[in-house]
Amino acid sequence: MSGKTAPLASPPLRVFFLWHFHQPWYAPFDGSPAPLPWVRLHALKDYAALPALFAADPRVPHAANLVPALLDQVELLAQGGSDAFLEVARARVGEWDAGGRRFALENFFSVSERILARFPRYVDLKRRADTGEDFTEPDLRDLVVLFHLAWSSPELLKDPLLVHLRKRGHAFTEDEKTALLDRQKAALSDVFPAWRAAFESGTVEAATSPYHHPILPILADSSVAKEALPDAVVPKPRFAHPEDARSQIALGLSTFERHFGFRPKGMWPPEGALSEETLALLGEAGVAWVASDEALLLQSPPISRRKSGEGDRARLLFHPWKLTGVASPAVFFRDRVLSDRIGFSYATWEAKDAAADFVARLASIRAAAPEAELAVPVILDGENAWETYPDNGEPFLRALAGALVGLSP
Predict the structure, then answer these.
(1) Which phi and psi angles does 139 have, rounded to 5°?
(2) Distance between CA atoms of residues 385 and 343, nearest Å
């Protein structure tokens, strides 16, 4: 028998992607238009298009956290709701007063520089606005149309009407402006079917949050802030309403179920904030897993008092934790470096180079703890990052999926 032995294979290293989709509640309860348009615009650019992209390769699973207050606002808009930006856009430019003209010039350049640069006429209008030049009615009409083209997903931009408008690029008519806004209104109805299909694919797992995205630990007990920050100034008298935290969790789960027909097993607690009391409340509600930031674990005694190297960090961080003594959900802690590189760095890289860097960092984690079975959570905002990526992030996400699949045994 030979004296040589084969090297032992390392256990699997798993990557856990969680994309968080959140907007605060904008819609007034009297039915009047919302003051800000971000639910509608992100629905047009992100919410209907990203689900299919996440579900594209069944070998690369994702999770999507959809905040219930966001879902209800998308529903309101799809049923005919409006916002202040849309009210101005739908009015004939020739009927705008000075306030309407000022509103357009102050607000309809609200796009990233990368997106604006795709439309030469838009770039020229921005230059003229910055230098204080006067705008004619055709200028203002073009501004409205280009703003809404800029807030369209790559898939929506394939629609024949949008292809025609983008190809011409200027001198839009009132009828064309109205047709574009009508087509976008119809597209809002695509959001829920798109997510439903992604969840049914088995590639995208569903998660949600407490209804209005409250900070659960301080809603349950404001004095808990002193556990993390002993010098924190907390309200007097003490604010402690665990029943409100419990109702926000329950309402969040039931709202998601109303839209999709099932309750998700996972939940992103707003801002990743957790406490022992809120973990107990989440477990009581039947939540199976939650996620938070690595700092919450690494700064928790006695872990924060350890002198640990990269291998110790990997062994501590990259597996689920549970609170003992209660029916606690499993807690995953995000890798801040990998998450932030997607959120803030890779947008300026070539897609294949960014994917290669991501994979190299995974290899470093694997090498730091070669004997451990690890799960690396990558958790970030699901919408805002893509505004700075080419083609709304699609080339990067496809390159990343390809690189990860290439690592599979």
Answers:
(1) -60, -45
(2) 5
Q: Is the dihedral of CA 65, 116, 345, 356 positive or negative?
A: positive
Domain span at residue 99?
Answer: 84-189
Q: Are residues 246 and 298 in the same domain?
A: yes
Residues 222, 181 share a domain: no
| pLDDT tens, per residue, the chain with 409 residues | 334 444 446 788 999 899 999 999 999 999 999 999 999 999 999 999 999 999 999 989 999 999 999 999 999 999 999 999 999 999 999 999 999 999 999 999 999 999 999 999 999 999 999 999 999 999 999 999 999 999 999 999 999 999 999 999 999 999 999 999 999 999 999 999 999 999 999 999 999 999 999 999 999 999 998 888 889 899 899 999 999 999 999 999 999 999 999 999 999 999 999 999 999 999 999 999 999 999 999 888 667 656 556 778 899 999 999 988 888 999 999 999 999 999 999 999 999 999 999 999 999 999 999 999 999 999 999 999 899 999 999 999 999 999 998 766 5
Task: Give 102's strand partners.
Answer: none
| Amino acid found at 204 | V
Q: How many other C-beta atoms are found inside a 10 Å radius of the C-beta of residue 182?
A: 12
Whether 122 contacts 116, CB under 8 Å: yes
Tokens of 56: 């594209």
Same-domain check for residues 263 and 377: yes
What CATH number is attached to the domain comprising 303?
Answer: 3.20.110.10
CA dist 304 to 65, 133, 293, 298, 376, Å?
29, 58, 14, 5, 20
How many structural domains comprise the chain? 2
Give the angle 96-98-101 at the CA atoms, nearest 5°: 65
Q: Are residues 390 and 253 in the same domain?
A: yes
Domain membership flag for residue 382: yes
Beta strand spans in 67-138 (E): none
* d(C-alpha 171, C-alpha 168), whole Å: 8
For residue 281, the one-letter residue type is L
User: Are residues 252 and 118 both part of a single domain?
Assistant: no
Please give the Cα distance from 172 to 94 (Å, whole number).
Answer: 14
